[in-house]
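Hi Y.,

Following your request, here is the sequence exactly as I used it, all 372 residues.
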Amino acid sequence: MTRRRRNSLLLLSLGLAVCLAVYWAFRPYRVVGESMEPSLVVGDWLRIRRELPERDELVIFHEPDSGKLGVKRVVGMPGDRVQLLGGDVLLDGKVYQRPLHSVTDLVPLLDEVGAAAADRMHFEGDAMEVTAEGWSLNGNGRAFLSTPPNGGYLLRGDLRSAVEPASDLGIEVEYQLNSADSSLELILRKGQSTFTASLVGGGHELMVYRQDGAGTEQELLLQRELMHEEGAPDIAVHRNGTAFFTIANQGLTVVLNGEVFLDHLPFDPVKPISLTEVPADFPQVEHAGIGGRGMVEIGRIRLGRDVLRQSGGTFATGMGLQLADGQYFLLGDHPAASRDSRHYGAVSDDLIVGTVAARWWPTGWTLRGWAE
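Below is the corresponding structure, written out as tokens. Let me know if you'd prefer a different format.
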């Protein structure tokens, strides 16, 4: 064999080795099935990284009983004792309180602007002007969802409804306060209690209230003065931007422009709706709305809910499941359509192919199903 031929074969072998290494490292995986909706949709292509996951990340793995390739979200980590109870995940006997600092951490229910958002909401008062680009308030006004949200989800912009009511809601709006006395309200109702996060004084102060039943006195839960621009005390830093308010796992969270001002503040349990006030088969619903005073502009409105972790299955019900070293508990984001660790138990790290790093295609959607 000539030297030239040997060199050609060597280069070909090296090129093939590099191609195989690149393919192994960046091999795309295609989503099959509905178990991860709305985060992932059938036909999505995913890119992975070859390392073990952290909690709440997505993983590609082989099912321990069937060997089939699947994708799920990590809920339990090695050493955890996992139990599913009442729609929540309990880790070592305590409800897992995952960080919720944006509506994009929740399951999408509403994502609209202007007139499109108005079609889903009912206005109280006549001070709101609605255009295709947004809402303009000049006075006092509120808008609530026309019907209480259910436990469905937005799937690439299309609403998929469900029978059960939604729980643990979060609402986020783009806003601008145009006067020194204007205010913005984000409102969440849970049982007989109404919780309001109010940005007042043109954005100079944040106040959070609770009211247990119509006509009762409001309880002030938080009052905090906010920053103003350096050298301009009349101009509030948070006079415009994005405001997020959620109630999840018995805690309140408020985030303004990415800055966390209230992080899972615990509160006393709410009183359920009395059965003397509604039919016995009436569901215990939660509700959401937006309000304000003065001159306020409202743009994009987004509403989400926390994931309902159904306990149907063999594992992590009753006394729970203890995970050993190297074992993970994996669940689908769409429990009713998911075959996961509830059915085949813990997944060992040697069955994990990799952690999902991004979606190759289609682009424009987060790994929780929100439009970017």
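The longest helix spans residues 3-26.

Thanks again,
Q.
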